[in-house]
UniProtKB/TrEMBL annotation:
This is DUF2798 domain-containing protein. InterPro entries: DUF2798. The chain crosses the membrane at residues 20-45, 51-75. Keywords: Membrane, Transmembrane, Transmembrane helix. It holds the Pfam family DUF2798. It comes from the Bacteria. It comes from Acetobacterium malicum.
Amino acid sequence: MGGNFAGRFKAEPNTLKYNLLSNLPITVILVLILSFALTAINVGFNEVFLMAWISGIPVSGIAVYLVSILITPLVGKMTQACIKKNEF
């Protein structure tokens, strides 16, 4: 998903531009789902829910995007190491 998105902007794999762009789609999805769920748990479904949810999106968006940028390369390296380890 993220790779296709980055490819639309002519970003080459293993570049900073590619990493920044490829993390955007998953960040948007995670932010919307997690902020919705946490707002529902903390505020409940009442008259202030929509405003509380919308106001939490920018803060959670920044946090999720930064974590995604930092974690994605590490997870990719760990995955490649596991794949190479299990090759016969």
